[in-house]
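Inverse folding, one chain.
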């Protein structure tokens, strides 16, 4: 899907954000470090802020296209 540029929602980024917030809350409540979860959450928040919240999580490729100024596939 990423290579084809297909971001038709299967599981929307905004739903991932909600789930990751729950995971972070749980981890923080028991003092568990979850640095990779935080990193993914930041990427998803960027997507949400750039009109990507309703897209499929495969749209994360757009984040890397933005960072590198390189188009993936298509």
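Residues assigned per position:
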């Amino acid at each position: 899907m990423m290579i084809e540029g297909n971001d038709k929602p299967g599981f929307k980024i905004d739903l991932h954000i909600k789930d990751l917030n729950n995971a972070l809350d749980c981890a923080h409540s028991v003092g568990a470090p979850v640095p990779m979860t935080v990193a993914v959450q930041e990427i998803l928040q960027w997507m949400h802020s750039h009109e990507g919240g309703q897209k499929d999580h495969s749209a994360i490729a757009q984040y890397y296209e933005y960072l590198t100024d390189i188009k993936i596939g298509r």
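The two ends are 10 Å apart (CA to CA). Residues 24 and 35 are 10 Å apart (CA to CA).
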